[in-house]
Automatic annotation (TrEMBL):
Pfam family, one: Peripla_BP_5
UniProt name for this protein: Aliphatic amidase expression-regulating protein
Organism: Pararobbsia alpina
Domain of life of the native organism: Bacteria
Encoding gene (name): amiC_7
GO molecular function: amide binding
């Protein structure tokens, strides 16, 4: 029997705006986990009760709605944000109210807050492996293109360090607005043709990224010879762009939806029953995982107290669709398994390399030399 009074939680993902596709996937993963937990009797007999807003991809709107939820809405646990600019916009409100933000997106690292659990990959769990993979597969000349905000600039700084330390060369580094126009992207593609790099590392996001992938093939660049490598392009966006246009492109992530394990098969069955043919991806899977991690922590402490929840979150583990998940008590980031995959003609991603074991998060890149990232 469930009690009437539920656990109120805030959900802040953009269903509209420039990042609506990936943030809608965050939203669907969150919904799936909440419904699954509630169908099984909730947490300690009480349902999760989400209070949901759409910040439309605007950092100011994220800040305003987070303040509404945390200061007026009787909520102190928030699932939300995707871009670093939105996370940085809500962080002061979260800390001031001593609330807890669960943040499931990959990001550039170099942050710690006692009020945030970071469940997405940081650079020592994705970008360093991607750089090593590309360099080991004879890419020497890299062309960098990104959206003009903190995550792409930091990711490119790390990529540049890796490439230059190992004898490669950055031939160009360009930044565009988040809704980059066809004209702006055409100019970048002309530059790519002129420089003839071995690989293009893209940190474009949202609409701009999808336009770029579409134009890349349309303008006649051979993706099998000069692939785009990314940390963000996943199954959902690939389907929208058209799988044939994405063949040969490379993504580094901790989850791809054709992983062969029982937990993933279970997740995909739930996903298809609820959302039909829309593909699950890392954006939905990590959002799904973190709600389950939260529920496990809440079950341990039975109260929505930030300090107690965080302490409990450090103790729990989840058999997730991507593998065993735990949270590192030193920095509130997840221990994750890096993988690299190449997009096939049918839009599926073929995993071409994965780490033998989960990798501890090192958001400040403090304890590794780059030599550690040669893929064995």
């Amino acid at each position: 029997m469930m009690h009437d009074e539920g656990w109120r939680i805030g959900v802040l993902y953009s269903r509209t705006g420039v990042t609506s596709v990936t943030e809608s996937e965050h939203f669907f993963g969150t919904v799936l986990a909440i419904e699954e937990i509630n169908a099984a009797g909730g947490v300690l007999g009480r349902p999760l009760e989400p209070v949901v807003y759409d910040p439309k991809g605007e950092p100011d709107e994220f800040r305003r709605l987070a303040a509404r939820l945390l200061m007026e809405g009787d909520v102190n646990v928030l699932f939300g944000c995707s871009t670093s600019s939105s996370r940085k916009a809500v962080l002061p409100v979260v800390e001031r109210t001593n609330s807890l933000l669960w943040y499931c997106s990959i990001y550039e690292g170099f942050e710690y807050s006692p009020n945030v659990i970071y469940t997405g990959a940081v650079p020592n769990q994705n970008s360093m492996q991607l750089a090593a993979y590309l360099l080991q597969h004879k890419a020497e000349r890299f062309f960098l293109v990104g959206t003009d905000y903190v995550y792409p600039r930091e990711s490119n700084r790390i990529m540049r360090d890796m490439v230059e330390q190992h004898g490669g060369e950055i031939v160009e580094e360009i930044y565009l607005p988040s809704d980059a126009s066809e004209t702006q992207l055409d100019e970048v593609i002309r530059d790519i043709r002129a420089h003839e790099p071995d690989v293009v590392f893209s940190t474009l996001i949202g609409i701009g990224a999808r336009r770029f992938y579409s134009l890349y093939r349309e303008r006649g660049i051979d993706s099998l010879r000069t692939p785009i490598a990314s940390l963000t392009m996943a199954e959902g966006e690939t389907q929208l762009i058209g799988p044939a246009r994405c063949e040969g492109h490379v993504t580094a992530a901790t989850y791809f939806n054709n992983l062969d394990n029982d937990s993933n098969r279970r997740f995909l069955a739930l996903w298809r029953a609820r959302f039909g043919e829309q593909p699950a991806s890392m954006w939905s899977e990590m959002a799904y995982n973190q709600v389950h991690l939260f529920a496990l922590a809440l079950k341990e402490v039975g109260v929505l107290d930030t300090r107690k929840l965080v302490r409990a979150a450090h103790q729990v583990s989840l058999d997730s669709p991507e593998g065993r998940l735990t949270i590192d008590p030193e920095n509130n980031h997840c221990v994750l398994t890096p993988r690299i995959a190449v997009c096939r003609l049918d839009g599926r991603y073929e995993v071409v390399w994965q780490n033998a074991e989960p990798v501890k998060p090192d958001p400040y890149l403090s304890s590794y030399g780059f030599a550690d990232f040669w893929l064995r």
